[in-house]
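Hi team,

Below is the intake form for Metallo-beta-lactamase domain-containing protein from Paenibacillus nasutitermitis. Please confirm the fields before the structure is written into the shared record.

FORM ID: S-0412
PROTEIN: Metallo-beta-lactamase domain-containing protein
ORGANISM: Paenibacillus nasutitermitis
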Amino acid sequence: MLKIETFTLGPLQTNAYLITEETGERGIVIDPGMNPQRLLTRIQGLTIEAIVLTHAHFDHMGGVDAVRKAAGCPVYLHDLEADWLTDARKNGSERWSDVTEPLTTDPAEFALAQGQKLELIGHKFQVMHTPGHSPGSVSLLCGEHLFSGDVLFRKSVGRTDLPGGRERDLYDSIRGKLYKLDSNVRVYPGHGPQTSIGYEMENNPYVPA
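The structure came back. Fields below:
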């Protein structure tokens, strides 16, 4: 049984997730955001097998460098954003100078792709390419747990007015992929509270079922 811990990090209140397996000794980190000190303290003594990025906007990748160095683990990111980690203009940190200094880090070690299944901490994580908020946005499904990044929020959706965003792609991702999942699937978004697929299908004012 997975244990899922949420760390709300940085000035944009980004949800970073630490997922550990049954023994609590091995884990993965999804979206280590800015100012990750609390997360770094928590993972001391754990074997972190991977950092998985739902996308490479600065508020989601700000802690990659610190976590990767502390844990000695690889980073996974969709190929469409392969150069965003090394480019402060593309990851947005250069644009948001009132929030952060320009942020860069080394490239990801591994690429994510639609339909890929990651074998991590003894569990399978299915990769769903869900563009719209950004071109390389992915959602990760493990059992009845979905990590949706900035694609789907509780009664809201990700913004599409940033470079590479596209409203039609976002709605297609949600309706064509996420809403095809079981209604009981729990959604862990990049910002804000948890929700479920069934709740969003009934209550999301932006993308009704």
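SUMMARY LINE: The first helix runs from residue 37 to 43.

Thanks, M.
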